Amino acid sequence: MNEEKIKELLNRYQSGQCTEVEKAWVESWYNNLLKDSKTVLAEDIIKKDLKSVYKKLPNPYKVKFVEYLPRIAASILFVMSLSVGFYLFQKRNSNSVTQISLQIKENDEAISLNKTFLTLTNGVKIALDSAPIGEIAEQGGIKITKVKEGLIAYTKISNKINDIKTAELNIVTTTKGGQYQIILSDGTNIWLNTASSLKFPTSFSQGKRNVELIGEGYFEVAKNKAMPFKVLTEHQEVKVLGTHFNINSYNDEPTTKTTLLEGSVKILELNSQRTKLLEPGEQSSVKVNGNIKIARVNTENAIAWKSGVFQFQNSDIESVMRQLSRWYDVDVEFEGELPAIKLWGEVHRNASIIKALEFLSYFDLKYKIVNKGETKKIIITTYN
User: Is the N end or the C end of the chain the one with fewer CB atoms within 10 Å?
Assistant: First the structure.
């Protein structure tokens, strides 16, 4: 992209005339900086326009933006855009890491893969996607209602709850491609991501609000100072009184990540018994060896899945493919040496797998889909 095109784009951004894709590109531009680029532009002109962009940016980004102003224009080469909304940024230095910013939008070929099941205490399994709207079960003085597609709620039945000494345990499970929202009996809202499960009591008693999570879930916990809320995963326990946070605890991920949006939470690593307190805007990463790392992050990236998109921020190809594998219900296998690439941007979850994989060809990668019975495998290889 030449100097005039960049100026035109920045002017449109300042006046609010950019498309959503152009706006996303400008706002992620400075975050995708690569050092030592040899591209040369008129720095005084570009800096003036970039300062105008800076005034429009949300506050969390401004500190980093000021640091990068002198070399933004020389950092990234705009290569091309595709019909599905890809934007590719690549350094001229062949030894550097390549970064791709992508915007894959909805398409008519996409199919709905929602598959969610509710398992009651007695072992009865209910397919929630095919269940009718309305009351679907009653357990332990609690009425279970399918409020609408994608949402069930647990509500107390007057007078009956007092007769229950031990709460019934239920499990909501999403298969690959599924996603569901649950409102617990205390008013806590939970969004369950694909290939995940939540085990919880139908009602809370004895001063405890404990649930168990496998996979990923976003929690908006109802405040109750007398009864802390705890989320148990394989490697950690999260304790809260009332707050908003996301937990990613898939077993195929190298760490368990907890991202805090509001309030405060206490992270307990189960093996080492180490603890950390999180503040809003922070994310903890817990490894099997007991280490807990804390970093400030863009929290919107962590919960983008709730809005039906994959959000990538400096993600390597293995991480991206793990997310696509869970959603599209496919296994992934790599053959040959993979390029050192980082990806930024978003992919709509109702885009077809074919659209989602189009970026591979721009890194000399090809893939094939192999069907083995009911299992699908994507094999990714380098071009010879």
Answer: C
Output the CA torsion 91→304→85→9 (10° steps): -70
Is 14 buried (19+), middle (13-18) or exposed (0-12) by CB count in 10 A?
middle
Helix, strand, coil percentages, rounded to 5, for the chain: 20, 40, 40
Dihedral of the alpha carbons of 43, 48, 51, 56, in degrees to the nearest 10: -130
Cα separation of 89 and 340, whole Å? 14
Tell me what pLDDT residue 60 has: 40
What is the chain's Cα-based Rg? 23
Kindly report, residue by residue over 271-305, the tens digit of the pLDDT: 889 999 999 999 999 987 778 999 999 999 899 99
Residue the block writes with tokens 């079960």 = 137
What is the distance in angstroms between the CA of the first residue and the CA of the last residue of the chain? 30
**What span, in angstroms and rounded, lies between the C-alpha atoms of 258 and 344?**
21
Q: What is the pTM of this model?
A: 0.72
Asked if 145 contacts 156 with a C-beta cutoff of 8 angstroms, the reply is no
What is the tens place of the pLDDT at every residue in 221-243?
999 988 999 999 999 999 998 89
The tokens describing 315, both together, are 């993600």
Whether 325 has a pLDDT exceeding 90, the answer reads: yes
Pairing relationship of beta strands 229-232 and 209-220 according to DSSP bridges = parallel
| 54-76 pLDDT per residue, tens | 454 444 433 333 333 333 332 32
Q: What is the pLDDT of residue 236?
A: 96
Lookup: tokens for 370: 């192999």
Which alpha helices (H) appear in the chain, and where do they start and end?
A: 3-14, 20-29, 43-56, 62-68, 299-302, 317-328, 353-356
